[in-house]
Automatic annotation (TrEMBL):
Superkingdom in the source lineage: Bacteria
SMART domains assigned to the protein according to its UniProt record, in alphabetical order: Iso_dh
Protein name: D-malate dehydrogenase (decarboxylating)
EC number: 1.1.1.83
UniProt catalytic activity: (R)-malate + NAD(+) = pyruvate + CO2 + NADH
GO molecular function terms listed in the Swiss-Prot or TrEMBL record: tartrate dehydrogenase activity
Pfam families: Iso_dh
Cofactor needs: Mg(2+); Mn(2+)
Isopropylmalate dehydrogenase-like domain boundaries: 6-349
Keywords of this entry: Manganese, Metal-binding, NAD, Oxidoreductase
Family statement drawn from the similarity comment of this UniProt entry: Belongs to the isocitrate and isopropylmalate dehydrogenases family.
Amino acid sequence: MRKVTKIAVIPGDGIGVEVISEGVKVLNHIEKLDPDVNFHFEYFPWGCEFYNKTGKMMDENAMDVLKSFDAIYLGAVGFPGVPDHISLWDLLLRIRKGFNQYINVRPIKLLEGVKETLAYVPNDEIDMTVIRENVEGEYFGAGEWLFKGTDKETVLQTGVFTREGTERVIRYAFELAKEQNKTLTSISKGNALNYSMVFWDSVFEEVSKEYPEVRTQSYLIDAAVMYFVTDPKRFEIVVTSNLFGDIVTDLGAGIAGGMGLAAGANINPEKEFPSMFEPIHGSAPDIAGQGTANPLAAVWAASQMLEHLGYEEWALKILSAVESVVQKPELLTPDMGGSGVTGDIGNLIIEYL
């Protein structure tokens, strides 16, 4: 009897619903092609529109419900009128932290056929993977708001870097670099952040001694973002903190074809809890319902999900299909210079599969 892989689908808001639909379409097609694949999708209406109706981003028992799934497939959250810190902390970060998804994996690859953002950089020079610490650091959520509403108003935002949290993400990156025979770059800001980033740098140095075969380099965040633009080929595997990872991966998306190709995986490596996979482009309410949203990032995230679940061959086939589709620019959505519609992109992926 085929093993059933249970996937919780949270389409979310805006274009999230549209792009996730195409990803599910592709996964359903794989199920038809492969007798060993059996997906069970269950949908949950959580997000900002749910918040406007109920005052909550998710049901009270949401984490208990999600715990029984093998993976979570998220569209996007965000809607006019709902503060960004509500949508982030009450759904996305709640899941990341609650399920200890402490590794964030974001591929940054300029696919053949995608219009180059950096005119002087050929496609094969933008191909890296950013490993971002995902549950603590600058986004730990600790701090104080003192003397609110007075002329002495003071805000403290505390970054939290534990030995366990810092070492495990750095070690994960070293293992990946070793496995793929690639260089590893650490990005920090040790010259100015004299506690958190000096600690980060020292842990990176300690762990590096256990991996003499891995070539390493370290950059300050300001230099790193410059080199992302002027010389991206120097980066292969990158490891960095929660905040810096958030910044450099959006920059990476910009130099690799735009947010429509930006996928992300929130991983619990031990598989004690489900991991979550998402396009990272946001809900784009201004174009929702127009049929012009680009679903390729959602499809790429589905590829990441399959890899995590053990379907490595299908993960590679999906990515290969995405690469084939982007070489037909006239059929792509308007953000990539074409006149195609959202629903047709999933069909194109299926044709290549």
